Amino acid sequence: MSSEIVELNVGGVFYTTTSRTLTTQPDSKLTILFNNKENALRDSKGRIFIDRDGVLFRYIIDFLRDGTLSLPETFREKERLKREAEYYQLPALIESLTVNLQHQQPGVITVGYRGSFQFGKDGLADVKFRKLSRILVCGRVSLCREVFGETLNESRDPDHGIVERYTSRFFLKHSFLEQAFDMLTEQGFKLVGSCGSGTAGTAAEPKPGVDTEENKWNHYNEFVFVRE
Amino acid sequence: MSSEIVELNVGGVFYTTTSRTLTTQPDSKLTILFNNKENALRDSKGRIFIDRDGVLFRYIIDFLRDGTLSLPETFREKERLKREAEYYQLPALIESLTVNLQHQQPGVITVGYRGSFQFGKDGLADVKFRKLSRILVCGRVSLCREVFGETLNESRDPDHGIVERYTSRFFLKHSFLEQAFDMLTEQGFKLVGSCGSGTAGTAAEPKPGVDTEENKWNHYNEFVFVRE
Amino acid sequence: MSSEIVELNVGGVFYTTTSRTLTTQPDSKLTILFNNKENALRDSKGRIFIDRDGVLFRYIIDFLRDGTLSLPETFREKERLKREAEYYQLPALIESLTVNLQHQQPGVITVGYRGSFQFGKDGLADVKFRKLSRILVCGRVSLCREVFGETLNESRDPDHGIVERYTSRFFLKHSFLEQAFDMLTEQGFKLVGSCGSGTAGTAAEPKPGVDTEENKWNHYNEFVFVRE
Amino acid sequence: MSSEIVELNVGGVFYTTTSRTLTTQPDSKLTILFNNKENALRDSKGRIFIDRDGVLFRYIIDFLRDGTLSLPETFREKERLKREAEYYQLPALIESLTVNLQHQQPGVITVGYRGSFQFGKDGLADVKFRKLSRILVCGRVSLCREVFGETLNESRDPDHGIVERYTSRFFLKHSFLEQAFDMLTEQGFKLVGSCGSGTAGTAAEPKPGVDTEENKWNHYNEFVFVRE
Amino acid sequence: MSSEIVELNVGGVFYTTTSRTLTTQPDSKLTILFNNKENALRDSKGRIFIDRDGVLFRYIIDFLRDGTLSLPETFREKERLKREAEYYQLPALIESLTVNLQHQQPGVITVGYRGSFQFGKDGLADVKFRKLSRILVCGRVSLCREVFGETLNESRDPDHGIVERYTSRFFLKHSFLEQAFDMLTEQGFKLVGSCGSGTAGTAAEPKPGVDTEENKWNHYNEFVFVRE
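YS: structure for the whole thing
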């Protein structure tokens, strides 16, 4: 049997694992530690001692067992875990956490639309569905691109060379509001605010070709999404 | 007595259980492990050793005891637990978790209504109740169907063959807004945004048969629901 | 001294208690277990062994000590704890948890009001307070009754025989919006959405007796409350 | 050295402390227990045994060490901790928790304002700031007083003798909306809903002295604050 | 080897570390304790005993290992940890926590804008983007300055000498709403409320040079941000 049991004392928390798991990553401090285990510090019960946080080691050993990172859905110690990964010299774990943390780059994107309803000829349709032409997108250019990718229309944005700036001149190539919302939530954004407003009436005669009923129901709805 | 006590060391966390519980699922790794317990790795106290996460094992053993999955209401390690279930080869648990995770498929549904109030003849009714005709539903077709089922009216949606698309042409067969909200919350959706807007007045004479008071109070309220 | 110390191993978690506490509920499995303690399974340290979840046992023993249920304010394992109470045959605890869980029956109630401001004669009052006549309540009939009780006016609801249905024809007997909100929050509802809209102007002359200033400020505010 | 080490077994959780800490409060059950320690129940390792919840004892011993109560910011077991303080007969801790729990008395307060913008003569000012005259406060009288204290103007409330009632006739002595919000959040209230609405236009000529531009931008914003 | 293993019993929770880690901060109580370890209180297993909270010591020892403070993202015991740092006499940790806590100084800032859409000549542009001139900022002066720094325009605020006051006369030097939101979220503010309102129509002829379409879509959106 090629693996032997190893008992660890990590800052006072005890773990049991095997030599095979511990030496999975050849250049890590844990491999070096195990290969020099006769020189390792040991606690009063003979366990190999590591002077690091004992709680976060749960995820370090988990990564060594499976080779992939799988964190609880609401894990809130990523920065701290990255510090541990750096200490143990686990580049693949550092990489995973860095991607994971970058992915969490915070920012705000606002999505808005001017909408009304489809009334059909003489307003006779029995159901009037939502009607909107353009979905407007405002925010930091790089963030908008990350979220909307190919569905983003930048053709009307005057300064499209510069990325580190804000714009309010992006819009989407489609008109499905919920698709835009789905893309935002898939990227970790949450809807945190929403505003609606109607329009002002006028005493003027409606222009020819304008549907007065549709005109009356015009509104602007604006949705603020945040990624923390 | 047909069952004996078994002491386990799962990655450094200790559990005590019985042989009967451990071997409930005939083809699982735990049954195999117990049936070959004379070859099992053992820690320094003689406990059977398993080189897996010790915390999540709480739910593995719980499942073996009762045969059903019962997780804390806000459990946030489902993906991680599924990985453990795969390791232990527990198909019924994997199945439960897969259903559970699918059920959490994220998405956005928007519900909107154009409403006003019932004024009665000459506005004499002492209480004016909310009046709305159609509850509009927008979002991914498959998601809307999952939530609203038989209460969804798709008759006005032109492309009803294709499922993987977005629509803004669904409406409900009833007009109870709170029933729609209840169905959404029962399916794990949360209301995250809401917008209201009134309508614009006009200088035109009201058409015959239009209740001017009701007309004045027209508004469009839109509610955004998200399942994370 | 009538009580002796009992050491327990509940699925690997250790508890210490007294025989008096353990046998408080005469017909429970724990009383039976203690009265037959010479036949009980014991772990390697001689502790009485129970093959159940070790963490939830904290609340089982707490209930035995005081005879009442007191859970953390955000306790999220009620269903799981109820399963444990059923296993241990503790009817009073099952009852408490059932009431507790029923109380958490999810649902949505919408509260809305049409309001304006009190301008006084010729708008001369220095402060214009909120003015609203009726607070409208919409939702499932049984839920609305549970929350608002005697303050609910059902006189205008046409079908008041049937309970398992939705209505938008309830209103409150008083006009204190915050009292309605307090009753909802006391019953575990949370405000999750709110919409406001003004009214449309008209070219028509105001009717005699209508305060034009008050008319101008008319608005409809709608509040969505959810209990999860 | 006047203090000796004391090992405790509180319901199966082990604590180590000193006799000095344990006897800080002369009349508490812990002082009595220590002074009669030769008669105390002891576990199999000789630790003094206490048949109470082991987890909450962390805060009991913390209180004895420093004499003050300092809980985690999101502590959710106050009712349970109070029950423990009553068991141990620690009046100062009961008092702290009672104040703490009262402070958390739930309730709803609504703040609203009618506002517009300052346009200056002929609308020539380059920036138009928010303009509002009165901040209206609605809710339970005692709660409004607790939050706003001296900044609350009750002069227009007709029934100011009675405290256990609701009012919509309070307003603030100042016109700084954010100061009102700060006072609410300092007292543990959270903003959970907000509604905005504009006003209706009229065909009538504006009255002399009315700024038509300012008039056009009139709106009513209403904010609902809840303390859970 | 210059470091030796030290076993600690902190209020009943056990930690293992090295003498080097423990004596990192020369004037701390832990250094003093270690240098007088022959006089230290010891528990029944010979561990050095410290009569303080055992759970929070995890972060104390962590700080000694790395010399920097790294807390979980949602750590909720900062006040309690500061009390521990004061007990152990660790000025650098006290300093970190004080900065950290000050940074969390609560408050409310409101951001609002009057906006419409760019219609271009005769409304012929195919996409109408959001158009806003000034972003208004209201709140406590010191807080607004902390968040917006150089991007804040105070030139129109009459009393700019006094800091401890509220103002509604600040605006931003730029017109990128999302940049303002990003700055607020970077400083720990969360959007908790948002209100929208349109404008009232008039019977008057539009003034020369006013774009009637743009005029119609005028709205005021107000966003409330809170830092807890």
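YS: worth flagging: Chain B has eight helices and nine strands.
IM: good catch. Also Chain B touches chain C through 61 residues (CB under 8 Å).
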